[in-house]
Every structure is written in structure tokens, then in C-alpha cells.
Design a protein that fits this description.
With about 350 residues, the protein is mainly α. It is built from 13 helices and 5 strands. It has helices at about 20-35, 50, 60-75, 90-100, 105-110, 115-120, 130-140, 155-175, 220-230, 245-260, 265-270, 275-300, 305-335, and strands spanning about 10-15, 40-45, 85, 150, 180-185. The strands form 2 sheets. It has a 3-stranded parallel sheet. It has a two-stranded parallel sheet with strand order 4-5. It binds tryptophanyl-5'AMP (TYM).
């Protein structure tokens, strides 16, 4: 079953395991808003159950979940048009996650590069949840029979696994129940790189705060981080091909293009021959102009935490209403007795 025969429904999630970065904004949040604006049914989730696959301080986790929700709203997600909630309030995710644990094969999971990266040499000591993570991620998506998932490039392999799980479930039970999702990995900012190392992804878990721009950074900090971003001594060339081996320079050009809503070709033409001093200063102005209103709105929203919690609760109710009938059918398909009166 391709996604094509199911009604279009978008799902995506972000972990509240730290503050959000410019990578999350350009690779995910900004695109989530575009999808909402296209009038597609959109479901967005703070995936708190994923966050606890590595240790989270409870109070910080609660705050980060609220802050993430505030970032969604500040960036343009309208909780009336999109469904916005935190994962743990809708139990269908973990229920289906368990069922998928019984569908997915150890061999498939062992090939997940993100697990290998995160576990590193310490794989004996990480949680079982971290290993099972991609199966829960497939459940997040398929609990709603979602057809399209906008994500950054780093999630591609997890979405391929989600496709494999849907196909295996459908085959094992002889049904055409789950759609085979389409990853939506588009635009110039599918992989925003660290400001200190052009071979590494910009990440909230990088030990160096200088490596990323946080959505909570003030204008001075943003400008300073961009000014100090690693580059090379050459001026900017007049074509993208010449940036092939200049990873840090290429990253800044891509960030500029994504922020400006232009192609990278356009940006390199406009700045051909420019020194980094000039380019970085234009990039800093652009980044501040885009992010400052979002940061200020996040701060404003965070002053009324009860209201954020209310929005998440209401979103969870709407999400649950979509997922529950799907879960009822899943239980029937797999042969579970459902005799409680609800
Ligand atoms: P997470 O929380 O690491 O990241 C959230 C989203 O931001 C994107 N992203 C980036 N995009 C471009 N450049 C970067 N440097 C960058 N860093 C992060 C990610 O690709 C992602 O789209 N497993 C997911 C969360 C998740 C999920 C899901 C996503 C759980 N269930 C179901 C989609 C559907 C994750 O850890 O994302």
C-alpha cells in the first residue's frame, strides 16, 4: 500500500531533550508551518517519550516540552488548525510502539546509524529504549495512518524503517491497513551543520554552545556566534560547485538561503567575491530579523504556562480521538480480545 491511496495526513515530532536550534527551525519547524499553510491536515508532537531514552531531569523535561510547544506556536503553528500535543498524553503511541517491537526485526534495528552514533562505544550501557526508539517513531506516525512526514535529512533512515514496518505488518496480517509513508525532506536546509565543524550536524546535544544557534539566543549572541563561525580565508566564489569542499562556507550559504527563502544559487551570485566579514554580517542581520520575533513570542508565551499546558491537553484530546479507532482496529487485526465496556 503506498501513501497514495490514503488521505493525506502529515505527522512530525521534535524531542524536548534540550532547547531547539536553528537546525530544528529550518529543517523542521519552518516547514511544518508551510504544510499547515497549504491546508493539509497536520499533527505535530513534542515527543517526550522519545526524550527519556536518555536521562532527563524531570523538571527540565517539563520546561523543555513547554518551551518546544511555545516555539511551535511562535513560529506560526496555529493550535486550532494543526493538532499540537505532547506524546505521553496519547497512549496509542506506546501501545502501537510495543506491537511494532514485535514486528520489527533485530537486524533492521541494528542497522540504525543514529543509534550507533548516539550509543558510540557505550552500547552496553545505553537504555533499551534508545535501541527501540525507531519503532516508537514508526508508531507515532502510523497511529494516525499519516502519509507524509516532514523531517530533516538525519531522520531519513528512521522513515525507511517505518515504511518497512508498515509493509511487514500489512503482509504478516494479510491486510492493507497501514500506509507506506513518504518522507518529506525538501529545501536547502535539510541538514544544517555545526558552526564549528562543517562535517557535523548542528545539534542541541553538541557540548559546544558556539556550534549552534538556539531559538532562545538573544540578537547579540546570534551575531557573535555567526561572526565566530568557522570559515576559510578565501572570498566567496560565484558558483555552488566551487563550494563543494568548503563545507563551512557552504553551510553558511545554505543557512542564508533558507532564512531568506532564496535558492543557494541566488545567494552565491549575490555575494560572489565577498569576504566572509561582509557575508557574515549580512547573515547575522538576516538571522536576527527572522529569529528575534520568534524568541520574543516564545518568551511571552512562556509567561503563561497554564495556557501552554491547556493547548497541549486539547491537542492530545483531538489526537486521541483520531488514534483510538485506529488502535481498536489494530487490536482486532492482531487477535486481542476487546471485551471491556468503555
Ligand atoms: P529531533 O528532535 O532530533 O529533531 C527534530 C527535527 O529537526 C530536524 N533537525 C534538523 N534539520 C536540519 N538540520 C539540522 N541540523 C537538524 N537537526 C534536527 C530533524 O530531522 C527533525 O525533523 N526522531 C525525531 C523525532 C521524532 C519524529 C517522530 C519525527 C519522533 N517521532 C515521528 C517525525 C515523525 C528526532 O529525534 O528529531
Amino acid at each position: 500500500m503506498s501513501a497514495g491511496s490514503f488521505p493525506t495526513r502529515i505527522f512530525s515530532g521534535i524531542q524536548p531533550s534540550g532547547g531547539l536550534t536553528l537546525g530544528n527551525y529550518l529543517g523542521a519547524l519552518k516547514r511544518f508551518v508551510e504544510k499547515q499553510e497549504e491546508g493539509i491536515e497536520t499533527i505535530y508532537c513534542m515527543v517526550d517519550m522519545h526524550a527519556i531514552t536518555v536521562w532527563q531531569d524531570p523538571e527540565k523535561l517539563r520546561q523543555q516540552t513547554r518551551e518546544g510547544a511555545a516555539a511551535f506556536i511562535a513560529a506560526g503553528i496555529d493550535p486550532k488548525r494543526s493538532i499540537l500535543f505532547n506524546q505521553s498524553q496519547v497512549t496509542a503511541h506506546v501501545e502501537l510502539g510495543w506491537i511494532f517491537n514485535c514486528i520489527v526485526r533485530m537486524g533492521w534495528m541494528s542497522r540504525m546509524t543514529q543509534f550507533k552514533d548516539k550509543a558510540g562505544k557505550n552500547s552496553e550501557n545505553v537504555s533499551l529504549g534508545l535501541f527501540a526508539y525507531p519503532s516508537l517513531m514508526a508508531a507515532d506516525i502510523l497511529a494516525y495512518k499519516s502519509t507524509h512526514v516532514p523531517v530533516g535529512d538525519d531522520q531519513k533512515q528512521h522513515l525507511e524503517l517505518c515504511r518497512d514496518i508498515a509493509i511487514k505488518f500489512n503482509n504478516d496480517y494479510g491486510v492493507e491497513f497501514f500506509p507506506v509513508v513518504e518522507p518529506v525532506i525538501e529545501g536547502v536546509a535539510t541538514r544544517v551543520m555545526s558552526l564549528r565543524d562543517g562535517t557535523k550536524k548542528m545539534s542541541k546535544s553538541d557540548p559546544s554552545d558556539q556550534s549552534r544557534i538556539n531559538l532562545t539566543d538573544d540578537p547579540d549572541t546570534i551575531a557573535k556566534k555567526i561572526r565566530k563561525a568557522k570559515t576559510d580565508p578565501e572570498p566567496l566564489p560565484d558558483n555552488l560547485n566551487a563550494l563543494k569542499d568548503r563545507l563551512e562556507a557552504k553551510n553558511l550559504v545554505n543557512i542564508y538561503a533558507a532564512l531568506a527563502g532564496q535558492t543557494a544559487e541566488r545567494v552565491i551570485k549575490d555575494y560572489a567575491g565577498a569576504q566572509f566579514g561582509t557575508f557574515k554580517s549580512a547573515l547575522a542581520d538576516l538571522a536576527v530579523a527572522t529569529l528575534e520575533p520568534i524568541t520574543l513570542e516564545m518568551k511571552r508565551l512562556m509567561q503563561d504556562q497554564a495556557e501552554i499546558d491547556r493547548i497541549l491537553g486539547e491537542g492530545a484530546d483531538r489526537a486521541d480521538a483520531l488514534a483510538r479507532p485506529i488502535m481498536d482496529q489494530v487490536y482486532d487485526i492482531i487477535g486481542m480480545i476487546r471485551s471491556r465496556r468503555r
